[in-house]
Amino acid sequence: xxxxxxxxxxAEIAAQLGKDIKSYCPDLQHxxxxxxxxxxxxxxxxxxxxxxxxxxxxxxxxxxxxxxSELAKHFGVEQSKVTGxxxxxxxxxxxxxxxxxxxxxxxxxxxxxxxxxxSNEAWADLKxxxxxxxxxxxxxxGRSSFQSPSYASVEMIRATMGGDAFRxxxxxxxxxxGFEHIMMGMETTLDKNGVSFGEIKGxxxxxxxxxxxxxxxxxxxxxxxxMGIIPAVDQWSSVNPNL
Length: 243
Hints:
The protein is α+β, with helices and mostly antiparallel strands. The protein has helices at residues 7-24, 38-49, 61-75, 109-112, 120-131, 133-141, 147-160, 204-226, 236-239; strands at residues 31-33, 56-58, 82-83, 86-88, 96-98, 103-104, 107-108, 170-176, 179-191, 194-198. Strands 3-6-7 form a three-stranded antiparallel β-sheet. The chain has a three-stranded antiparallel β-sheet with strand order 8-9-10. The longest helix is centred in the last third of the chain and has 23 residues, at 204-226. 37% of the residues are buried.
């Protein structure tokens, strides 16, 4: 089972969640969606909740921390020695894994790939372990993990309540040229003002991979529209004036 296999049922749950927020707790400060496919369930909940885009995030940080962990294990260093580990786009097997942002013990990861330290084949295998990490957990345990999602989501909510800013990538609503009307993992900051995102910088190949991931999310979004769970994009503002 993949995150996408949960699409219809969980999108319907997200729609009801959004409606309940609008009816019973419209003053909600921040909503973090965890259940998969998180980019789509987060988008559906945002549409129906009436909240501002800055008030809704999805849990995408686990993909980046999984990349950090895999790199640390490969190079035999403490996880804290791996910095700038980033995945963007969809929280699923179509995520875009970036190498250009990362450093291992101060050395750019891009300079290590293709060397004896990390062959191209080993890097490709490592990326697969990252993108399929969630599926492997389900295969091994028979269900999803809850420890890491719980910790990360608490840290995200703590940041919006005035705690330390959360600076791992989070899923957020994006509507900029090239990435329109979607929820996806971005380079974000979560603080007492909610979520904000900045420009994603990478190589041409990485940006192309990100656009491919975005295209996959658009397909899932349009499937949910065709199911009648959410209206067409041009009608979203009639449901949520903040969109």
